[in-house]
Write the structure tokens for this entry.
Amino acid sequence: MKKIYFVLLFLSLIVNSPAFTQSQRELLDSLKTALNQAENPTDQATILSELVWNYVPISMDSAIIFGERGIETAKPLNDPALLSQLYSDLGYAWMEKGELVNARENYQNALKLRVELGDSAKIYGTITNLGSVYQRDFQSDSAMVNYLKALAFFERTGNERYADFVKNNIGVIYLEMRNYPKALEILKQVAEYRKSQEDDYNLAMTYTNLGNVYKNLNQFNDAEKTYLEALEIFKDFEDIYYTATTFNNLATLYNTQKKSNLAIDFAEKGLELADQAGATYDYALIESNLAQSYNDLKDYPKSREYYLRALRNFESQNAEDDIASMYLLMSPVYAALGMPDSAAFYTSEYVTLNKKIAEQEIQQLTSDLETRYQTEKKDAALAQQELEIRNRTIQLFGSLALAIILAIVGYLLYSQQKLKNQQLKQEGELRAALAQIETQNKLQEQRLLISRDLHDNIGAQLTFIISAIENLKYFDPIKDQLTQRYDTIANFTKQTITELRDTIWAMNAGQVSWEQLSGRISDYLQRARLSDEKVSFEFLGGENLDSNLRFDSASGIQIYRILQEAIQNAIKYSEASAIQVSISQEKDTLKLQIKDNGKGFEESKITPGNGLFNMRKRAEELKGDLNIQSKTGEGTSITLTWPIS
């Protein structure tokens, strides 16, 4: 079952805090009255921005409607500051709803406008919010990079309040990495600062995070105390969403302590508020908490009812991990109800779903290892260091693959043995099935631990290397002599982080949708734009593409690597001022084109390097064709065409 860790958004950089001196409902009514009376579009857009911010704790769907209306109102006004504000507000609403693709898109639109305006404080505020999106998407390395950039800026400019917000989010990352002592140390510092500033609302957020730390350290009295303090603050501010989630946190804590009646009381209160806030995922989590409480009380019919309701809600959101948890938890409930067939059915569903996930990961690992091997050969000067990294990665992946294969083999052997013993009593079959589930669950925990270590720990360590190197550049007298070398090492480390993130992305995706691949391409072009402001980038996202278009993870990473190599070559060698990326579909064929207006080259007069060779090799693996057209002084066009499988 997933745990909720509250990631505090850096919203004070974007809009003023809500005026909680009056009730939230009264404030909303006054804003809507002002909106109806506003005489010009600028006033309307400004009020719509405030409505988005204040509606998020009450109704995220309403907040999104007001945000989209505000953007349409602001677009014709030629006011980039107001428009960027509305994009940021809407990104906040989408993020709280859990729609991370939409949240990231709106924050990136806000960042682009704020870079053009040169507003440093709001630029780094938006960078922090993007870090929160990455953190919600379990991309802790990218989140930490964004947070450290923002923290360095705010500490350098003496902005303690904004630095405090970023430190809170870094504390949450340590919480997610299960480094509880470090999380406790940072979050206590944040809480003390917010107490001194009488920042009660954000103090409640920190109390929630501290409650999670205490709960994981089995310090239940401290956890209960901090949760209850957070609850009272959220109630005072009439924030129904966070009041609902805090009720659920308390219910989880009481279930852990087998205080089932207390858990039910708090969960039922949270369920009502989650329904009002339209928080579907949190609603399902609270239902599962109620199911556990009734199971502990041996009220199995009531427990089954809530498990089935939670299962339907998780299925509507395609939350496979939570669906698997429901299958696992429902099986003993049906056994207790004297329904062995249903218990066996959900046991089988749990094993089948885990087997499906394992098979997808084996396929992803095979493709990812080959891709990473080809990519890491490009830099001959650092070949030895890359070889060591690759060997460590292969060892980790090999252990993971072996564990998964052993799990599958164990499952098949168990199934064969089960067929030979069909005459055994149903009670014996259920015990054997539950024993198998326990074995599978332990193997699953080991797999997740390896994946988390690869994803979070290595990424976090490389991030801290970058931060340390960049800080060293400012120390005299070695600054001038070593800056270039530090930049080289820092750039390599950043590239390593990016490739690690791409590896995890491919590993965790059985299939890649066009929306996901497009998001990756947009992120990459955004980073390229920030690295070289003299070059303009344009991405034509293929409006004529089939909306249901999907790629297997191997094809997705091959396409992405070809685009990366082409963009890097254009930036390094072409002296171009504009680079255009486009993708289109003609029947059963896709075409990706990268064009620049640089100095061009005669392919017959150059010695092809690993880059061009790798691009052509990847095109062959896609069963496609790579065409390079370039003339001196006329720019370069690289076109990849491949069939839709």
The two ends are 35 Å apart (CA to CA). The beta strands are 511-513, 536-540, 550-552, 578-586, 589-596, 625-630, 636-643.
